[in-house]
Amino acid sequence: MLDIRLLRTDLDAVKASLSRRRIDTSELDRVATLDVRHRRELSEVERLRAEIKRLSAGVGQARREGNGDEADRLAGESRALDVERAAREVAADELAAEIREVMLGIPNLPSDDAPDGGQDEHVLLRTVGAERVWADHQRVPHWDIGAERGWLDPERASRISGAMFALYRGAGARLLRALTQLALDRHADAWEEIRPPTLVRSETMLATGALPKFADDAYHVERDDLWAIPTAEVPLTSMHRDEVLDEAELPKRYTAYTPCYRREAGSAGRDTRGTLRTHEFDKVELMAWCTPDQAGEIHAEILRRAESLIVDLGLVYRVIDLCTGDLSFSSRRTFDIEVYAPGTDQWLEVSSVSWFGDFQARRGNARYKPAGGKGTEFLHTLNGSALAWSRIWPAIVETHRQPDGTVLVPEVLRPYLGGADVLK
RNA sequence: GGAGCGGUGGCAGAGCGGACGAAUGCGCCGGUCUUGAAAACCGGAGACCCGCAAGGGUCCGGGGGUUCGAAUCCCCCCCGCUCCGCCA
């Protein structure tokens, strides 16, 4: 959520910034108007309440002095004022609720550094491995490899759960487990491993920015009013909700391995083959809490870590600086890592490394106490995927497919596959 | 699912109709002492909102109610804990 004070002092700047996202900014004018009215009602309510408090103190005093008539007179006066107070308060509360509702639907301000551009534009920062030459045996899509080797079983997956679910088997399944373990181990040096709940409350979804706008994209367990997380970012971003941390304990770095659930509403019929787009996939995520000063370095660190794993897996990839029109709702700046899958001849998004500023912390009321200073400040949050099953798996089997149809195991993965250098 | 107990400041924990934004302890900040630190002692400090400021207001899980006045009484809800039952 944006700081509403920004709308009071700098409405034009906020509008200019949000229009870089290529969205309609008329809601901002509406909030600004409502805000003025809200504050007017609020100060009137407060004036009345102060008066009532004064009168009430008088009642108590008059009573103690045995002056019953005076006490009754003051009580009556107070009662009359309270009628007006109640009416004004209802009006103020309604305005506050309306303001909140609109504010929750307004996306974050893009960073000044984020490149301008629409949804289909992006700034390519670098491509690693572009010079690589692909042989015919690497031009086989992973769904064919999966069928050929018995690693993927789409018929049974849909028998069990329907379209857009994956069922991996044998060495294919084992490869996933190895990848997960590898990713988790790589960050154990500085990132605390978390295994959070994956069914969460509405407030938890709201703090991240997954609600209220994107309710249709998530699975909702109605009977218990719980949501299946679309990413570990959701529970991790509520780890310190309603807390006040000491600056000395920052930054806090977490890594979590969880399943992720997405309804993919509106994507039916797209990417129907293979594992690229599924309702459920597992992912290892990196997520950090820090001060504004630390955010830049952490952002770089997450990107560095995500890239280095991909390098070690022997994959070709590129890094993209997302344009303002393509930035996700809560993000101020995002770098996407896309891995090249030679069999499907596609660049697959495997990680979005994002800086959210204090946007999520504000929604979740997560603050810190600056060392030596007084008061509290909102934390900054950042995150990025370290490894997403549904995209890394195809890239690996396609990239490392050998002429005989087997798949060469990247060096770093071998210890996790009992030393095997080839998957047959 | 049944029974009981509880939710108060950064944390722990008193208070149970008016003088309570709230004792006390821990933690935190400043000072005295010390070569320095620790200890001890003295002092300070809650969060949030409105306001240029002076100042005002809100906040004792959330929401209603009673009352001139609610942390305190009543109702509903949420969350947590304990015991029993069920269960991977």
Structure description:
This protein has helices spanning 4-19, 26-64, 68-104, 142-149, 154-161, 171-186, 202-208, 233-236, 292-312, 359-364, 389-399; strands at residues 122-128, 192-194, 199-200, 219-221, 226-228, 244-246, 252-261, 280-290, 317-322, 333-341, 346-355, 367-369, 377-378, 380-388, 407-408, 422-423. The longest helix is centred in the N-terminal third of the chain and has 39 residues, at 26-64. It has two domains: 4-103, Helix Hairpins, CATH 1.10.287.40; 123-423, BirA Bifunctional Protein, domain 2. The mean pLDDT is 91. It has 424 residues and is of the alpha+beta class. The structure holds one RNA strand of 88 nucleotides.
Briefly characterize the structure.
By secondary structure, the chain is α+β, with helices and mostly antiparallel strands. The chain is 41% helix and 20% strand. The chain is elongated.
Structure keywords:
41% helix; Helix Hairpins; single chain; BirA Bifunctional Protein, domain 2; alpha+beta; elongated; 16 strands; RNA-binding
